[in-house]
Amino acid sequence: VRLSPPRTHHLQIASKPMNHAHSSAATHFFNSLIDFQFESADDFVNWWREQPAECAYCQTPIVLVKKLIEAGRLTVRKVKGEGVRGPVLELDRMDPKRPYSRLNCALACYCCNNDKSYIYDAKTYREYFGPSRNRHFRDLEAQVDKELKEPDQ
Asked: Contact 110/77 with Cβ under 8 angstroms?
């Protein structure tokens, strides 16, 4: 789990399984939010463990997003300190007007989370933009795989 400063209310999910250090970070994050309506930090951790390691909107596995970043096909965005957005799933409120809760949270890749923002509701974004983003990521992956099989001569 990678946490940005609490004032941004931005939690990034890096990998599974969540260990004790991650649980402590989740507890700190949980305690820093006013509009966080999980029953407890443990409830949040349990919810997090139940989520697939893919974007809720484009269904792209985070390992593919990391592969595309490492291949230079996607870029990351630097944040304050030493952090970056991109190689990890982020906690998104599907309806930004509602609090963080089991029913209103989803894990999203940086691209979908940033693009959806406050403009689209989760259902619309998932239906109309998610499939296109997934297709784009898969096309990029095919290009990367082809280049690895056929190095420059």
From this structure: yes
